[in-house]
């Protein structure tokens, strides 16, 4: 397993090859990420939809609430959201199932002076949903927000994410899911579709929950990163389809 040193992470994974630099409120951020990976190491990349989560939390009417909130991020990747929101949140827990990804996240947190401000945990969403890890065994209490960025791309993972969302909604948390819309031509149906997003919608419906597309049009960008037109932000809510 890679150590918390950025250089060691690069050597161990051999895919962390890019420095991401951008400005956030009152800070300049520098992170190590992978520019491209295979599916198994996709958590080493910083996906554009992370920007929407940061912008939503740092908007004027939400930022005061951020300082009173505990945020749990599943699938934290290299830690972009944790690095941006960690200093302002009451508590921030960045989690991932991949030890190498968590190591990179820790390295980026340390690099930006947040090693003592943001917690990191190994949490496997699929294991939780399958019951392999008891839900009550995850020692994170009083979560106000469950967030995830670009975890909607594989059916089992998506189903597990919705299952976990349902559990946290029952505990009173709000759930924000940022996705990358990937529209492709499907030969079997001779139609253009976003298969992963369609599956996500079905999972939410089957769970008896609602899915609200967040309108980002009036929300200003909180960092110098550019938004992607294919990034979408949803809130999963109780009360059935909307």
UniProtKB/TrEMBL annotation:
<dbReference type="InterPro" id="IPR019410">
    <property type="entry name" value="Methyltransf_16"/>
</dbReference>
<keyword id="KW-0496">Mitochondrion</keyword>
<dbReference type="Pfam" id="PF10294">
    <property type="entry name" value="Methyltransf_16"/>
</dbReference>
<dbReference type="InterPro" id="IPR038899">
    <property type="entry name" value="METTL22"/>
</dbReference>
<dbReference type="InterPro" id="IPR029063">
    <property type="entry name" value="SAM-dependent_MTases_sf"/>
</dbReference>
<dbReference type="GO" id="GO:0005634">
    <property type="term" value="C:nucleus"/>
</dbReference>
<dbReference type="GO" id="GO:0008276">
    <property type="term" value="F:protein methyltransferase activity"/>
</dbReference>
<protein>
    <recommendedName>
        <fullName>Methyltransferase small domain-containing protein</fullName>
    </recommendedName>
</protein>
């Amino acid at each position: 397993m890679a150590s918390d040193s950025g250089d060691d992470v690069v050597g161990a994974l051999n895919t962390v090859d890019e420095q991401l630099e951008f400005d956030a409120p009152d800070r300049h951020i520098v992170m190590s990420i992978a520019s491209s990976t295979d599916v198994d190491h996709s958590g080493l990349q910083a996906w554009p939809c992370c920007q929407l989560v940061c912008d939503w939390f740092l908007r004027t009417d939400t930022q005061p609430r951020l300082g009173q909130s505990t945020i749990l991020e599943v699938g934290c990747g290299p830690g972009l959201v944790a690095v941006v929101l960690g200093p302002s949140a009451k508590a921030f827990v960045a989690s991932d199932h991949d030890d190498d990804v968590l190591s990179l996240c820790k390295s980026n947190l340390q690099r930006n002076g947040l090693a003592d401000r943001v917690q990191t945990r190994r949490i496997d969403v699929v294991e939780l949903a399958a019951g392999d890890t008891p839900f009550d065994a995850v020692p994170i209490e009083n979560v106000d927000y469950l967030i995830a960025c670009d975890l909607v791309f594989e059916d089992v993972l998506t189903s597990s994410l919705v299952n976990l969302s349902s559990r946290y909604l029952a505990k009173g948390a709000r759930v924000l899911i940022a996705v990358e819309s990937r529209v492709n031509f499907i030969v079997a149906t001779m139609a253009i579709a976003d298969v992963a997003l369609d599956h996500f919608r079905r999972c939410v419906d089957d769970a008896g929950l609602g899915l609200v597309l967040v309108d980002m049009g009036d929300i200003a960008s909180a960092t110098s990163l550019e938004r992607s037109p294919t990034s979408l932000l949803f809130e999963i809510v109780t009360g059935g389809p909307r």
